[in-house]
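Good morning C.,

I know you're traveling, so I'll keep this short. The sequence:
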Amino acid sequence: MNNLLLLILLNISFSQAFPTSELLSVAAYEARAQNILTDLSYNYYHHGAFDDLTINSNNKAFHKYRIRPNYIVDVSNINTTTTILGSTIEWPVGVAPTGHHKIANALGEIATAKAAARQGTIYIQSSLSNTLLEDVAEATRGSVKWFQMYVNKNYTINKLFIDRVEKAGFQAIVLTFDDPVSTYVRNNHFKDFGSIYKASLPNYEILGLQFSGEVFGPAVTLDDLKWFVNNTKLPVVAKGILTKEGALRVKEAGCKGVIVSNHGGRQLDSVPASIEALPEVVAAVGDSLTVMLDSGIRGGPDVFKSLAKGAKCVFGGTSVLWGLTVDGENGVFEVLKLIRTEFEKVLGLAGFPTLASITRNSVVHEHYYEKLSD
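The tokens, ready to paste straight into the viewer:
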């Protein structure tokens, strides 16, 4: 029996045996998922590059920010609705692009996309998914979906992807720029890592391609980004930007949005946590681009802090995979529901009834209070 198929079958049997009602945090879902997945699969999802410094700082950096409550305000009606790149969503947390969902569940990306649709938010499908983008689109008609791509050295292939994405009804293209070369793993977390990539990547295979360095290389330039902007009718979002220089570059190219991201700590180690880099990007481009964030989102307070520092929307990646592992579509739905409930509680408890009421002063770094105590 194919090893990947065996993993899928084992994951299904384990996930059906454990109810999710007592899982009250993303950490609890991760712990349950670790008991279900093989060590190889768990390490692939969980660990980052080099020494895991960035993947760890993504979580810790959020803890350094403090919420400044806005009391004596009517919070009887909490409204989290917002519009991102022309699409109205129920709340500002979407699903980030992550690959290989069928390692977690047999339905893979279709289960994830359906859960995002049920939660009224954006699903970004990775080009490294185990499911054709057309199949995801067919299964989730009417929902908000974006498609993530890498710049190919062959523009004909880029155009074939663009045409498929537009025809399938996706509403935006996300281009990832933070991995111009393959990453480096210093430890044994990714032992036998290559076997993961033996899984089917149908969005490349349908074009007669394999995802490899022969197709993708380090020679991506601003002209490549401009080409994408000029060859699609969809808004283009640049993902993996951490500096003002990068933000101004993608603005110059004509992008409509930017996702402040360090790839979940899976590419270059020792870069800033996304929440640390966010203010610099926001200051550089203001409202001229829709600024968003991923990497490190694990609960409602993280969402609030990101919005206060200038993000219009955030995306969760690994947290969603834990839910998918535990209980498929319902597991993803429950993880998103958990984060959504926490976020709404934070809004009410802190005195912010709408997203518009959140300001830059709503969150400060812990040093703010250290200075006051001097």
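Safe travels,
E.
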